[in-house]
Amino acid sequence: MDLVLQLLFTGIGIGAVYALVALGFVLIFRATNVVNFAQGEFSMVAAFIMVVFAVDLGWPYWLSFIVSLGGMALLGALFNLGVYYPLRNRSFLPVIIATIGASIFLANSVLALYGPQPQVLQGWFDTPGIQLGPVYLDSQYLLIIAVTIVLVAFQYWFFEHTLLGKKLQATSQDKEMASLIGIPVSAMIMLTFVYSALLGGIAGILVAPVLFVSIQMGATIALKAFAATIIGGFGDVAGAIIGGLALGVIETFGAAYISVPYKDGFAFLVLVAFLIFRPQGLFGERVAEKA
Amino acid sequence: MSLIALETLTVRYGEIEAVHGISLAVEAGEVVTLLGANGAGKSTTLRAISGLAKPASGDILFDGRSIAGLGPEAIVKLGIAHVPEGRRVFPGLTARENIMLGAANRGRLARRVLSDETDGMFDLFSDIRPFADALGWTLSGGQQQMVAVARGLMAKPRLLLLDEPSLGLAPVIVQKVFSIIAEIRRRGTTVLLVEQNARMALSVADRGYVLETGRLALSGKPEELWRNDDVRNAYLGGKAAKAV
Prior knowledge:
The complex is a heterodimer. Chain A is mainly alpha-helical. Chain A has one domain. Chain A starts with a helix and ends in a 14-residue tail after the last helix. The radius of gyration of chain A is 19 Å and the shape is globular. Chain A has eleven helices and two strands. Chain B folds into two domains: 4-79 and 157-243, P-loop containing nucleotide triphosphate hydrolases (Rossmann fold, 3-Layer(aba) Sandwich), CATH 3.40.50.300; 90-151, no CATH class. In chain B, the strands form two sheets. A six-stranded mixed sheet of chain B has the order 6-7-8-3-9-10, sandwiched between helices. In chain B, strands 2-1-4-5 form a four-stranded antiparallel sheet, covered by helices on one side. In chain B, helix 3 (95-101) packs parallel to helix 5 (141-153). Chain A binds chain B through residues 163, 166-167, 169-170, 173-174, 176-185, 288-290, and chain B through 50, 52, 71-73, 76-77, 81-82, 84, 88, 90-93, 97, 100-102, 104-106, 114, 137-138, 151, 155.
């Protein structure tokens, strides 16, 4: 029982990272009808910016964090202008291929600038964790969970209770109609890319102390997050969060009880099972639109 | 000076020329209807005015100023609201939110003003008041049409473009929609109304134009048009349907 609780905590911690990246996927998908395959690279780039400033240059952790977020906002804006905007009136396929190209470009740019060696980033706190009854709560996982809760609550408030959030929703539901009532559609999509890059970046910075900071971390996180969005039902915000958490828990339990080397495999086993038996995902049925 | 004037306007969709050099004008305070069969170019004309379609040649003057080539966001800010065919209510937003967003062209408004004006729309469209918090996709066609028109009015337009407001609605709802158009006109908003339901359209209009396969065939007062055999042809889809 103690082990189960311990695994549950760790699983939710890592699942929260997948959930954040999955949210970025969903928001961009809803705004542009395109899957951004470079979403994982946002996490990777943010983690490397942290390594450069906090480790190599020795800047304070919080200041490095702010610099890193600033960098992600800029990257999200440039990504929109360079990858999505020129192709916005084309079908979804050229845009998807462009995001794959951008993802390869980002990974190899970091490789060229920083080299192939995985880097280590310390956690935010000096204390490694606290013992709560039978469960040891790692401080970094606690931070991940806390930040995820705050971000999800913020996002809910923003989309449901602000006029700007409503305008973003309107844009994602019908761009032409949104432009007809005077919503600046291009600005709304720009905002979506910047916000998604920030979400991906925060996820990358949070998970960096748990994993190594490597060129490959982006692809790994993106694949898990993508699986999470499929499990949750593509395009569904609540689904992405629950899918991400579920995936984290499943792979943690799989690693503990079945096989450690196949840890990453469990995510894809679940993904394939969902694609075969429930392709609309857990919440897919709610995505109903009347003509 | 006319509120809106089209001067030999031509609009193409790819290879197809949907509107061939039409000229028409609407004076401030008028309700003018644009009649014609399917594919006559009525919707394309409205789409060109609101900026969704770019004119290939000719000009569109709003208050004497050319707006041809401006984007839809800029045009609605000048005071032209377009309620498009198919209603296009945002499916995942509530009726109230849909209506409220209609004021998005008017810059920053106080929350208070916005919510008062939205409430005002529920006075005009009292049938949808009980559904204020229902999501757009759950509403019936008639309810969606009322939300769409209310959303258009929230823009405080000087010119309201209505595209097929009666399409797919039950006769009793059609009556209601047209009584609302009469009310909008009474409040002084200029309306350019595209309809296939010529009888209803001519009953509220000051003047009408008839389009046939992208060309202007006729224009005149409602009673003149109604007596004209060509109108009956266009309205019933006689010549136009063969040509399409």
